[in-house]
Task: structure prediction
Amino acid sequence: MALAVCETTVINQPIKSKDHAEEVALFRAQILGPVLRRELARGELLAELRVLGELRFRPPGSVITKTYALPTPLRWRRAYLKECLAGLRPKSRRIGDVLALTEEERDLLLEIRRQFPSVPANVILDTLALDARLAKGTISAQTLRRLYRGHSMARVVRSKTNPKTLYLDNGSTYRGCALETACSRFGIQLLHA
Result:
């Protein structure tokens, strides 16, 4: 892994961030400060990060304090060593919930929804897996539905006309407020034998 060379400057004034992402990056760098500038063996590094994990910090813009489990500062440290302060900026989530997909796969799924608006998400995923166009389990049906909602492409459910009358026997499962309420809301007359 190639390490980025970060310039070190001594600053006598508080650092003012340009935006929220930079403020978060500076916050993360301040938390990591004690372990970034020291040569630590792997065991020592983990021990120091565990100590940091017991401390409470107030993230930018938050009114509450929180602790960070060991994997989080480890991930931040790797990002800092690779990209300096830029690596500590929070990643944008604007592309949605399908980060596991390539741009081509995302475009394919959106095009399928345009062509087949009433097909359920799980059927689309199963079909693509059978055609070997998308590995099974890459994303869940729920994630795909979120992608579609984010692009204002929710599934179009074909409307069917409601029956005018629902005729049921007198069994206890067919008598109750919930069934009566549902029928009345849909304008269905409920009859019992």
